[in-house]
Amino acid sequence: MRRIYFDHAATTPLDPRVFEAMLPYLKDHYGNASSVHALGRKARFAVEESRERIAGHLGAEPGEVIFTSGGTEADNAALHGMLGGARRHLVTSTAEHEAVLRPAEMMAKAGHPVTLLHPEPSGAVAPEQVEAALTEETGLVSLMHANNELGTLTPIPAMAEICHARGIPLHCDAVQTAGLFKLNVEALGVDLMTLSGHKIYGPKGVGVLYVRGGLDFAPFVVGGAQERRRRGGTENVAAIVGMASAFDLAVAEADERVAHLTALRDRLCTQLRQSLGETFVFNTPVEAGASVAPHIVNIAFPPRDGVPLDGEMLLLNLDMEGVMASAGSACTSGALEPSHVLLAIGRDRATASASVRFSLGKDNTDDDVDEAVERLATILRRMRQSRSVAAGRPASDWMADSELS
Ligand code: PLP
What is the DSSP-derived secondary structure letter of residue 13? Predict the structure, then answer.
């Protein structure tokens, strides 16, 4: 059976070109970038050259790029690094990734005032909500660029304008948009920004925190003097080279990738409507002109006749049929709790639990979409069938269920 990978928001495959770029640093150039000998200098050169290339893509200075162990660390560092002294208040939203919500929770427990904004049904908070939440004590506003479960985009430049009018820095988790949109820090107006290697066909375990020069930023991971004393720890040279190389390719191919993903996404939405009829709703805003990233389509199956659909079972069945998707963010799947993002946009628990996120990638094809929808429709028919029998409905009832036939 042909396997169909529709979980690119969780992680992307390593691009073979990136792998080639990393190989010498995994095999031969194994020096510690802090060592003064030839192997160390080779590693240092690779790290600094990677930093320059990434900074170039962001419209930033190389000194403003801090390498981290991934998006999670970069988010944690942004919050911990910026909230101190008189500026203790954090403003963020309930639809953020756990990598922001958990440190926010820790900070609240430690006595920091934290305002959690509730998103609109689209999944984004409105600029007016942010404006109303700011106080004299606000030290940071943290909002994601594209929501990792819904794909909804936050209007970051508008948020930046509001924050800057009050002299407050804005942190943006751009993990899901890196490589798709131009992430120029000036155009976006961000003061801190998080990126992750493995969402852009680069390696896992590497990320970037952009920190605007001149900001009073305290290091989160302390140890050696690496990263200009802003992040201790021996640099993961091969991964850093991989991240730079993945970013180069993403920027060079961005237009092509976005066009391809947009066409695939539209095809997926059309096919879902045609095959599944009224049995599902879109969690991702899909109306014309909706402000969304092109790679994520999240759908839900609300209870029918009061009977909920088992979302876990649906995912397992999809997996058995070779379709790999996700029930929410991969970092939290495995837990039976419905997605906090879907609850935040007002879905009831049963509907949120019966949701599937399809996230498309640059190497997916039209055939993948057609095949996946066909397999999904077959699985749903089978699940509803066995449920109907279990619920004692006569077979003729579900056989006549034309919506799914
Ligand atoms: N932020 C967002 C929006 C994400 O989607 C993810 C990963 O799912 C992260 C942060 C965490 O990144 P990493 O896996 O590199 O720690």
Answer: P
CA 258 to chain centre: 16
- Beta-carbon contacts of 386 under 8 Å, excluding residues fewer than 6 positions away, are none
Got the DSSP string for 175-224? TTTBTTB---HHHHT-SEEEEEGGGTTS-SS-EEEEE-TT-----SS-SS
Distance CA 267, CA 364 (A): 12
- CB of 311 closer than 8 Å to CB of 349: no
pLDDT by residue (tens digit) across 366-375? 999 999 999 9
pTM of the model: 0.94
How far, in Å, from the CA of 103 to the mean position of ligand 1?
14
Residue in 352, 265, 295 with CA at minimum distance from that of residue 7: 295
Q: How far is the CA of 73 from the centre of ligand 1 (A)?
A: 9
pLDDT digits (tens, 9 = 90+) for 323-350: 999 985 444 555 568 899 999 999 999 9
Q: In terms of C-beta density within 10 A (0-12 exposed, 13-18 middle, 19 or more buried), how is residue 155 classed?
A: middle
- The residue whose CA is least distant from atom 8 of ligand 1 is 10
What is the spatial distance between Cα 365 and Cα 377, in angstroms, rounded to a whole number?
19
Q: Which residue has a Cα nearest atom 10 of ligand 1?
A: 71
Buried b (16+ CB within 10 A) or exposed e, 221-254: beeeebbeebbeeebbbbbbbbbbbbbbbbbeee
Q: Are 323 and 372 in contact (CB under 8 A)?
A: yes
Return d(Cα 264, Cα 294) in angstroms, integer: 9
Residues in the ligand 1 pocket, defined by CB under 6 Å: 70-72, 75, 97, 99, 144, 148, 173, 175-176, 196, 198, 207, 329, 331
Cite the active site residues: 331
Distance (Å, whole) CA 333 – CA 336:
7
- CA of 250 from ligand 1 middle (Å) equals 18
